[in-house]
Amino acid sequence: MQPRFRPTIIVALLATLGATTTPGTLSAQAQGLRALEGEWIYVEDRTEGRALDQLGPPMSSTFSMRVEQGAVILVRGHGSGHTNVRVALDGATTTITEPTQAVHYRGASKDDAFTYQVNFVRSSTNTPDGLIRREFRITPEGLLVRAASAAAGPYESVALYRHAEDIAMPAPIKAAIGDMAWLAGPWVGTRSSGSSIEERWSPALGGAMLAISRTVSRGKMSAFEYLRIVERDSGLVYIAQPNGAPPTVFVLTELTKSRAVFDNPRHDYPKRIVYELSADGALRATIGFMKGGTPRRFDYTREAR
Q1: Which of 69, 107, 236, 258 has the most CB atoms at less than 10 Å from its CB?
Q2: What CATH code is assigned to 177-302?
Q3: Are 31 and 12 in contact (CB under 8 A)?
Q4: pLDDT score for 19
């Protein structure tokens, strides 16, 4: 499925062919960069020669930018912990002073791409502590991001990002709630950190299964989650609300008598949730990206009654 780029993006790209500046309007340079605006979501790693378990985003799974006259605003998700950083396009340096270091941002626009670098300098020694360089370029497939650090050499990571509306959701497979009956019950486990975690799933009834998850660390609840699996459009969807947040919907794309895969490529992380019942009756849940990376794993056993 081809990305459905919005008319505003097409107009912004055409603006790079030449536009006049009038009072109250953006310059041709800024107009050309307008295609960078909005929230971007990681789609896939395009780095050549990288092993499957090393695949992942070169920066945050989601980030956003805004364009104004003479600058690009790094709204959020750019990895330094700062928000709404104004990066000038004339090469001027923006400096943010922290208790232990100064962070210098410097950007430029050239050949239809926006590039910025971030330099971390220790306050105690006034010496560079790390340099990150990123390039953002609009392509017919979406936004291509190249990233490198001073220690890793030139452009060690390349990845594709898109706006949520330009990412196709998977087609659900045909299934009924009774097909997930094997997941019902109280499941408990212990994580490597020593914290306990549980998921308690209701029986399949009325077209739905409900669950609540709880993590307890050092005797106190550190996280909880409301979960649902619901029949919808001849298929099943998994709905998660971590810590009571707004619901995120994942579509069932694979199902056997002991394994279920739910996907949402529009979500930042996780994009995939997998439940699998082993031959000895243990339950394993994993969360991660659609392809590659190292999924997070949660192992459970059925609670004794």
Answers
A1: 236
A2: 2.40.128.20
A3: yes
A4: 35
pLDDT tens sequence across 7-58: 333 333 333 323 334 445 566 666 779 999 999 999 999 999 999 999 999 9
One-letter identity of residue 149: S
Using one digit for the tens of pLDDT, what is the confidence trace for 187-229? 999 988 889 999 999 999 999 999 999 999 999 999 999 999 9
Q: Is 92 helix (H, G, I), strand (E, B) or coil?
A: strand
What digits encode the pLDDT tens for the residues 105-138?
999 998 889 999 999 898 777 766 678 999 999 9
| Closest alpha carbon to 151 in 172, 133, 176, 177 | 133
- Looking up tokens 């997998």, which residue turns up? 274
Report the C-alpha dihedral over residues 22, 23, 24, 29, rounded to 10 degrees: 50
- In the block, tokens 């364009």 appear at 67
What are the angstrom distances between the C-alpha of 222 and each of 16, 130, 195, 196, 219?
A: 50, 33, 9, 10, 9
The tokens for 150 are 């001073």
Count of CB atoms within 10 A of residue 85's CB?
A: 20
Class of domain 7-164: mainly beta
Sequence spans of domains, the chain: 7-164, 177-302
DSSP E strands in the chain: the ranges are 38-45, 62-68, 71-76, 85-88, 90-97, 101-110, 113-122, 128-139, 142-149, 157-162, 185-190, 196-201, 208-217, 220-232, 235-242, 248-255, 259-263, 272-277, 283-288, 296-302
Domain 7-164 matches domain 177-302 at the CATH topology level: yes
